[in-house]
Amino acid sequence: MPRGLLTRRQGGSRRSRTAPLVRVPRTLPRILSPREADRLVGALRTHRDRAMVLAMLLAGLRRCEVLGLRFADVQVADRRLAVVEGKGGHHRIVHGGEPVLRRARRVPA
């Protein structure tokens, strides 16, 4: 379907069938301040949830990448996280950082 062009819609009144389709602009996510990030992490109840949110905040992982992490992907000695099947099906290695790995150690297997 062409975007932003006048198109016909099925059903409705004559006026609504010939009305232009308006695209809503996509906005960028708002960046959390350090205080907001601390409050977010402090509000989480489990070590698992804290480790997941810290991985997103500090290591830049996406939601689906965090959910796909396995214990074998966390390389504590090298302070790295292996992201398998990231965005676009690509693999990548990211620096985990001490807070992320400290929380990951506390998560029960």
Q: Which structural class do you get from the secondary structure elements?
A: mainly alpha
Total of DSSP H or I helical runs spanning 4+ residues: 5
Q: What's the CATH class label of the domain at 32-106?
A: Mainly Alpha
Distance between the termini: 48 Å
Percent of residues in helices comes to: 25-40%
User: What is the CATH superfamily label of the domain at 32-106?
Assistant: Intergrase catalytic core
The shape, in one word, is: elongated
Tell me the total number of β-strands.
Answer: 3
CATH topology of the domain at 32-106: hpI Integrase, Chain A
The low-confidence parts are none
* SSE string: HHHHEEEH
CATH architecture of the domain at 32-106: Orthogonal Bundle
Q: Report strand %.
A: 5-15%
Could you give a short account of the major beta sheet? 3 strands, antiparallel
Widest sheet: strand order?
A: 1-2-3
User: How large, in whole angstroms, is the Cα Rg?
Assistant: 21 Å
Which oligomeric form is depicted? Answer: single chain
Mean pLDDT across all amino acids: 80
